[in-house]
Amino acid sequence: MGKIPHSVRLDADKCMGCTNCIKHCPTEAIRVRGGKARIIEDRCIDCGECIRVCPHRAKKAVYDKLADLEGKYKKLIALPAPSLFGQFNNLDDIDYVIEGLKKIGFDEVYEVSKAAEIISDYTRKLLEGNKLKKPVINSACPAVVKLVTVRFPSLCDNVLPILAPVELAAKLSKKEAMKKYNLKKEEIGCVFISPCPAKVTAAKYPFFTEESGIDAVVSIGEVYLKLVGEMKRENINEILTETGRIGLSWGTSGGESAALLKEKYLAADGIKNVIRILDEVENGKLDDMEFIELNACIGGCVGGVLTIENPFVAKTRIYNLRKYLPVARNVYDSDKISPPEATQKLSKSYSIKLDDDVKTALAMVNKIAEVASHLPGLDCGSCGAPSCKALAEDIVGGFARESDCVFILKERIAGLYNDAFGRDRYNN
Fold first, then answer.
1. Which among 35, 193, 321, 356 has most CB atoms closer than 10 A?
2. Residue partners of 296: CB distance under 8 A and separation at least 6
3. pLDDT > 50? residue 1
4. 68-94 per-position pLDDT tens digit
């Protein structure tokens, strides 16, 4: 499989060449060369960490705009992520959000949390069948899935091979709309309201299915600004929400794993914590776990860079909203819903490779180790690479020189001075 275009992009005009992004990228996918950052596309997982830490806003997420969807489809279906409901202050009823979405132009609303409850029920059945490789790693966070393929390819078979809730939501909602309005599939637009750039990329280039049912992805931030003015405190004559506590809880860390009703599970959020857990899984330290839920963002999806609220505040709001809901409103029904299993295997071809030839790659590994041994090992980032090891890799790959290290350059300049003047410029 070829390169996948990313939703995280660099605005070179705003980039000041600082090293904040390279120090926080979990896959070392960024270098600073010639005073500007550069994203190595093969390594980028669209987690949005660089967007979060860039003080100059030189990193940005690319997504669809609501205005561009006007007139494109005969009917529009909103697919709101559970995290959307945690963005509003003093919200005590999800129905206000659903009604608001219809007021801003959507013909139908299908809550992703509804599909999440179906996925939770189906996952429970799969775990009971003991056919999955354990510990099972959740597949709902595309940044985590891509991280596994890039940095931990040996764990690809541990990733839960089923569709993300939003894909199931798109599939089911479009089927319902086709029947209700007597329209063709292509005449209906499913619009996912996303909390993060990784989900934007996954909707356009899905992991587990050849073609996504999502037609457009907009940001929670943009929708929030339009919704606030339309969410009037007026009586709604019917119950609009079709989700329960389980589905809504998917918007926060721990919600997915808790829904499985298993004791041997683990939930971790934040990309650094995710990497630590994956390291332990790879080393066999968590073999006693049945299910591991990992979310790249702090707090879960409520912490995505396309949201507007503090993730801890949003998480509390979702917990408060759950009090008014039943445990669940949806289960997997095999008579009505086809199995939401992956139709294609998770590819290991995304993993970082030094060379396609094994012998050449091994020789490069040895050369990288040799070059790294001559570097100071300070991982200061001044060279434009996130670590001395990364610089050594760049040097062997022909993308950098040893003199890019400021400490080596300093020593060489001092050596030239000594040769020219016959004395140590530092000790006179």
1. 193
2. 45, 47, 48, 141, 143, 144, 147, 196, 198, 269, 270, 271, 274
3. no
4. 999 999 999 999 999 999 999 989 899
Give the per-residue pLDDT at 2: 45
Check residue 3 and give its pLDDT. Answer: 56
> Is the confidence at residue 350, as pLDDT, over 80?
no
The residues near 410 (Cβ < 8 Å, ≥ 6 apart) are none
Residue 69 burial by Cβ neighbours in a 10 Å radius (0-12, 13-18, 19+) = middle
**Amino acid letter for position 208:** F
What integer pLDDT is reported at residue 356 of this predicted model? 76
Opening angle at CA 76, ends 74 and 80, nearest 5: 175
User: β-pairing, 108-109 with 136-137?
Assistant: unpaired
- Which CATH code for domain 1-62? 3.30.70.20
Least confident piece of the model among 92-106, 261-275, 354-368: 354-368
Query: Which amino acid does the sequence have at 114?
Result: K
Under 8 Å between Cβ of 330 and 247: yes
- Asked if 391 and 373 count as a contact pair (C-beta separation under 8 A), the reply is no
Query: Contact at 8 Å (CB) between 314 and 83?
Result: yes
Residue 139 CA to its chain's centroid (Å): 10
DSSP 171-206: HHHHHHHHHHHT--GGGEEEEEEESSHHHHHHHHS-
What DSSP string describes 32-76? EETTEEEE-TTT-----HHHHH-TT--EEE----GGGGTTTSSEE
CA angle in degrees (0–180, nearest 5) for 4-79-95: 155
3-state secondary structure 383-421: CCCCCHHHHHHHHHHCCCCHHHCHHHHHHHHHHHHHHHH
Whether the CA torsion 209, 269, 49, 393 is positive or negative: it is negative
d(CA 402, CA 266) in angstroms, rounded, equals 43
User: Is pLDDT above 80 for 218?
Assistant: yes
Specify the CATH class of 354-428 in words.
mainly alpha
pLDDT 10s digits, 134-143: 999 999 999 9
The residues facing 30 across adjacent strands are: 39
- Bridging pattern class, strands 188-194 and 36-39: unpaired
Q: Angle formed by the axes of helices 142-151 and 271-282, to 10°?
A: 50
Beta strand ranges found along 125-282 (DSSP E)? 136-137, 188-194, 216-219, 265-269
**Which residue ranges make up each domain of the chain?**
1-62, 66-322, 354-428
What sign results for the dihedral spanned by CA atoms 283, 288, 292, 298? Answer: negative
> Measured between alpha carbons, how far is 242 from 56 in angstroms, rounded to an integer?
42
